[in-house]
């Protein structure tokens, strides 16, 4: 899995850090960052991404297909 962050959209709600604290943390500017992409299971990482109200976190599978948010058609 590959995790992509759009920091400019982050509003520091912290739901991702509460769901997957081994993967996500808030930096000094209170923007989310990935601290360890292997810090939780794929299912937990997806749950954290889905919990973000601003869809700051995009998750891609190993082949590069975007799992979340769903790609626009």
Q: What keyword list fits this structure?
A:
alpha+beta, 2 helices, 73 residues, two-stranded antiparallel sheet, 21% helix, Alpha-Beta Plaits, globular, single chain, 3-stranded antiparallel sheet
Describe the structure.
This protein is an alpha+beta fold and 73 residues long. The chain has one domain: 2-Layer Sandwich (Alpha-Beta Plaits), CATH 3.30.70.20. It has two helices and five strands. The strands form two sheets. It has a three-stranded antiparallel β-sheet with strand order 1-4-5, covered by helices on one side. It is globular and about 35 Å long.
Fold topology:
Layout: E1 2-5, H1 15-19, E2 24-26, E3 32-34, H2 42-51, E4 57-60, E5 66-68
Antiparallel strand pairs: 1-4, 2-3, 4-5
Q: What Rg is obtained from the alpha carbons, in whole angstroms? A: 11 Å
Rounded mean pLDDT score: 96
Q: What's the number of extended β-strand segments?
A: 5
Architecture per CATH nomenclature, i.e. the level-2 architecture:
2-Layer Sandwich
Count of domains: 1
Question: What is the helix/strand order?
Answer: EHEEHEE
Concise description?
This protein is an alpha+beta fold and 73 residues long.
